[in-house]
Write a structure and sequence with these properties.
By secondary structure, the protein is mainly β. 10% of the residues lie in helices and 38% in strands. It has a single domain (19-149), classed as Lipocalin. The protein has helices at residues 13-16, 101-104, 121-130; strands spanning 19-25, 30-34, 40-45, 54-59, 61-66, 69-75, 81-87, 92-99, 137-150. A hairpin with an 8-residue loop joins β3 and β4. The two termini are 31 Å apart. It holds the Pfam family PA_decarbox.
Length: 175
């Protein structure tokens, strides 16, 4: 890359793995995300269309785009696709969520996804297959990272409870 002879793609992936974030989108939706390892992530959704949903060990594709800029992409059993770009130096996220109609359309049922997905994967596949999927509802938003910490790779304690089971003030932490 011009102007940065020390940067090579993926050179900082190891430092990003294990990072735990709390961030709030411009539309008010509040999320929590953890880079479990180079291939999986965990997350909780605290506010928004599917607030209350949480997932662990979600397969993802993680790449480093530039120094302190990382992108995670995945496809959920619900049919939802997610792309997150984290700029850790400037403390913001840009997220794009591609919701199928059955979740976010005018006759959608987002409430069907509000659970610990890992225990209901077969249900998610059934809902996804029943559809409808297209046209996808695409939501792209910027978010401010309000809390960021390094918790190490494969730490089962980072995202281990449902959003409603967290202690008071948990989401109010900032650094």
């Amino acid at each position: 890359m011009p102007g940065n002879d020390d940067f090579t793609p993926q050179s900082g992936i190891a430092s990003f793995v294990g990072t735990h974030f709390i961030y709030t989108y411009a539309n008010g939706w509040k999320y929590e995300w953890y880079a479990r390892n180079e291939r999986t992530c965990d997350y909780r959704i605290h506010h928004g269309l599917v607030g209350g949903r949480w997932v662990t060990r979600q397969a993802m594709n993680l790449v480093q785009i530039a120094p302190a800029v990382f992108k995670a992409d995945w496809h959920e059993p619900t049919g939802t696709c997610v792309s997150l770009c984290f700029d850790t130096a400037h403390r913001f996220v840009h997220g794009t969520i591609f919701f199928p109609q059955w979740i976010a359309g005018k006759d959608g049922h987002p409430e069907k996804t509000i659970c610990y997905q890992n225990e209901f994967t077969e249900d998610m596949h059934r809902f996804r297959d029943a559809g409808p999927a297209y046209p996808y509802v695409i939501i792209g938003e910027f978010a401010k990272i309000t809390f960021m910490e390094q918790r190490g790779a494969d730490n089962d304690e980072v995202i281990s409870l449902a959003p409603g089971q967290l202690p008071d003030g948990y989401l109010d932490r900032s650094n």
